Amino acid sequence: MTSTLLIIQFVLAIIITITILLQKSSSIGLGAYSGSNESLFGAKGPGNFLSKATMTLGLLFVINTIALGYIYNQQKMESAVDSVKTETLIPTTPKETTTAPAAPNAAPVVPTIPENK
Q: Where does the record place the region Disordered (predicted)?
């Protein structure tokens, strides 16, 4: 879901940039490269259509940004501190291994040495 919204975000950013550059300005912008805009958008020119398109695309861009922020926030609800393993960070001394004491009534084990005859 997030990858789809991220792709939509990039596409919206590119389309908004193009619509802003196509609008009539003092230096004409990219509108000079698009040919006769009056015949395409009607007698009043592209001003009204492009301003409405820019407003709509801007609104979609903001809504998509809020949706992306919400989804990323839901995926990352736990803090980075919660995922740190504290057992590996705190040095501990190894426990001493003790052997069990011998039974009190057990006979001592005496190694036998074979006699050479």
A: 92-117
pLDDT at residue 56, rounded to an integer: 93
Question: Mean pLDDT of successive 10-residue segments in the chain (117 residues)?
Answer: 89 93 66 52 63 92 94 75 66 63 65 71
Phi, psi dihedral angles at 97 (to 5 degrees)? -90, 125
* Torsion angle of the four alpha carbons 25, 30, 36, 39, in this order, in degrees rounded to the nearest 10: -70
C-alpha separations of 71 from 10, 38, 60, 109 in Å = 17, 42, 16, 71
Q: How far is CA 46 from CA 27, 43, 57, 58, 59, in A?
A: 15, 9, 16, 17, 20
Q: Where are the alpha helices (DSSP H) in 42-106?
A: 47-75, 86-89
The tokens describing 89, both together, are 């960070």
Q: Which residue has the tokens 């609008």?
A: 23
